[in-house]
């Protein structure tokens, strides 16, 4: 950049400009710093030393506005319908050479491909932005000790990176559009540099200096382009992250078979009074997450009498629900309180099938 020069001294010598001997940081010398150096000339006349002559130069370091917003991690945030406080994580770095405030805006993309693939299909609710509290709580992870921000980061020190959390609530499956397994909601976090210097108050907007170099502290935007709509050198930066619904999708099938009757026993039995019938309730999970605490209930018809001790849980199923075949097996469990047979399967993994089996006698 063109120096802001002030010349002093009585000799017509150009001063030699050189950088001050200060430590090198990413952001560089602090904006507004005055850099001064002085050249001296000593000489003699007729062998007699004469008075030293000198010339000085000084200039003011201009302000470079640079920042970076980055998604933390390389994978989507898995969520379930109706989940509160779903978290996506970002990092904001002040690479400027001055302490600044940063205005923050969290928005949702509209359609198109999300950061980690998939098409944006729904919007999250109640979006908030938190700053990681590095004094209390879990550093790097969102918790109740983190600071809810009111639209900006206050007085962010030069060469400092902070963790920011975009926290939202996921709609239930009843929402429109439907929040189904695999549905994606993309979010964008954008930060814009604002004037710093007054704690507790968001600083004024910053304007880049146009035209020739001035004698004061000029401003140059040095940020790179962010995500769509965020161009380079505009005093802001942004990045995307997303939520992906990973939930259980259950299908249920019920089948029965005759085990025996009083006359044919187990050879080609028929469904006559006294016959034993075995029921199978199969639950298949075609979703992307495990279904837990799966409670199955079945009311035994009045024309049947439940066979005590016949309930089996966690059995296998050949094929897919509902077109496959129950294997009528499992581990003893469940309970019977007339007229209901019930049992709880602790977990049915994504892509898995589990069953409840019981027997009854035809009255």
Automatic annotation (TrEMBL):
It comes from the Bacteria. Residues 267-362 form the DUF11 domain. The keyword Isomerase does not apply. Pfam families: DUF11 (PF01345). Keywords: Signal. Residues 1-26 form the signal peptide. The keyword Transferase does not apply. This is DUF11 domain-containing protein. It comes from Sphingopyxis fribergensis.
């Amino acid at each position: 950049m063109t120096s802001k020069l002030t010349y002093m001294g009585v000799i017509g010598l150009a001063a030699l400009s050189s950088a001050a001997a200060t430590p090198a940081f990413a952001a560089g010398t602090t904006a507004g710093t005055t850099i001064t150096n002085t050249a001296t000339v000593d000489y003699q006349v007729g062998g007699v030393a004469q008075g030293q002559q000198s010339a000085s130069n000084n200039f003011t370091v201009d302000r470079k506005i640079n920042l970076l917003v980055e998604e933390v991690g390389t994978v989507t945030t898995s969520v379930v319908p109706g989940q509160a406080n779903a978290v996506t994580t970002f990092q904001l770095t002040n690479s400027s050479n001055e302490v600044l405030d940063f205005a923050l805006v969290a928005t949702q993309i509209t359609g198109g491909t999300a950061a980690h693939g998939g098409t944006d299909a729904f919007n999250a609710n109640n979006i908030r932005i938190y700053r990681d509290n590095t004094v209390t709580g879990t550093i790097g992870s969102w918790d109740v000790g983190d600071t809810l921000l009111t639209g900006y980061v206050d007085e962010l020190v030069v060469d400092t990176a902070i963790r920011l959390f975009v926290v939202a609530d996921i709609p239930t499956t009843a929402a429109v559009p439907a929040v189904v397994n695999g549905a994606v909601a993309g979010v964008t976090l954008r930060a814009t540099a604002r004037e710093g210097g007054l704690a507790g108050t968001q600083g004024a907007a910053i304007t880049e200096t146009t035209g020739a170099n001035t004698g004061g502290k000029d401003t140059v935007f040095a940020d790179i382009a962010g995500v769509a709509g965020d161009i380079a050198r505009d005093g802001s930066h942004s990045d995307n992250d997303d939520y992906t619904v990973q939930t259980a999708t259950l299908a249920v099938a019920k089948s029965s078979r005759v085990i025996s009757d009083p006359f044919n026993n187990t050879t080609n039995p028929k469904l006559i009074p006294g016959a034993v019938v075995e029921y199978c309730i199969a639950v298949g999970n075609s979703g992307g997450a495990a279904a837990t605490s799966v409670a199955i209930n079945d009311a035994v018809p009045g024309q049947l009498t439940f066979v005590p001790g016949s309930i089996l849980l966690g059995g296998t199923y050949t094929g897919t629900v509902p077109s496959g075949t129950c294997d009528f097996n499992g581990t003893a469990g469940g309970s019977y309180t007339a007229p209901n047979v019930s049992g709880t399967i602790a977990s049915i993994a994504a892509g898995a099938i589990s069953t409840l089996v019981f027997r009854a006698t035809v009255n």
